Write a sequence for this structure.
């Protein structure tokens, strides 16, 4: 059996407990992306200041339910955070370990394109089984090779736009309010992103700016000033943003 399961990921299920409850509307008012349109989408839950708490992928589930593909180690924390915002609404929010997240580095097996970047490959959800084999190591290597950070260790407590969320399709600037929206929208309007997360060789990483080290791959994720990032060694999807920043500085 091909190794495709991401054991570091799990599912949080949001379910309406009454016919008039709107799970989509509830989540729409909290997260950075438009979950009322085509799914799956990449999104995050932020602090009121616009800093990253959780990043995840939102999937449809039918029957008014929604599924959140998130870090397994933080799933319980995400459930608690979402439950704080539920207040008196009749919505069940719970971890669902009966489902597994799967990944392949190519398209064509019937999965959904990773909403961040086509080159990341495809993902799908399926019932968890004892025969599932781990693809976590291969997935981590693949996404880092494309310069894509994810998870609390790499993104935590960083302004959402500084994680390259706009370039990786993780934010909608037209969907309306959500937690942290004011500062995020202001940064976008001013086109003022001072730092970005970048994947760099570990031996060239600045330990003062390092968010995470991946010694197995000889790579690190650093939070660097834009002027210190070399567009020539950056992933293609980031270069346009860096070039635009250079033009803005020149003007």
């Amino acid at each position: 059996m091909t190794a495709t399961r991401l054991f570091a990921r799990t599912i949080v299920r949001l379910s309406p407990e009454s016919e008039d409850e709107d799970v989509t509307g509830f989540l729409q008012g909290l997260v950075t992306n438009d979950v009322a349109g085509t799914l799956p989408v990449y999104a995050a839950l932020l602090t009121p200041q616009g800093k990253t708490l959780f990043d995840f992928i939102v999937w449809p589930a039918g029957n008014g339910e929604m599924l959140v593909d998130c870090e397994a180690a933080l799933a319980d924390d995400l459930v608690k955070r979402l439950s704080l915002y539920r207040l008196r609404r009749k919505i069940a929010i719970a971890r669902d370990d009966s489902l597994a997240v799967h990944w392949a580095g190519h398209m064509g097996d019937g999965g959904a394109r990773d909403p961040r970047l086509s080159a990341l490959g495809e993902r799908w959800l399926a019932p968890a089984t004892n025969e599932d084999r781990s693809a976590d190591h291969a997935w981590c290597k693949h996404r880092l090779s494309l310069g894509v950070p994810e998870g609390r260790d790499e993104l935590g407590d960083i302004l959402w736009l500084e994680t390259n969320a706009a370039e990786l399709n993780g934010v909608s600037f037209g969907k309306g309010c959500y937690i942290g929206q004011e500062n995020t929208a202001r940064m976008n309007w001013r086109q003022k992103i001072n730092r970005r997360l970048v994947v760099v060789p570990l031996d060239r990483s600045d330990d003062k700016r390092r968010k995470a080290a991946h010694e197995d791959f000889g790579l690190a994720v650093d939070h660097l000033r834009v002027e210190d990032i070399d567009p020539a060694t950056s992933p293609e999807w980031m270069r346009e943003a860096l070039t635009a920043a250079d033009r803005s500085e020149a003007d």
Remarks:
- The radius of gyration is 18 Å.
- The chain has a mean pLDDT of 94.
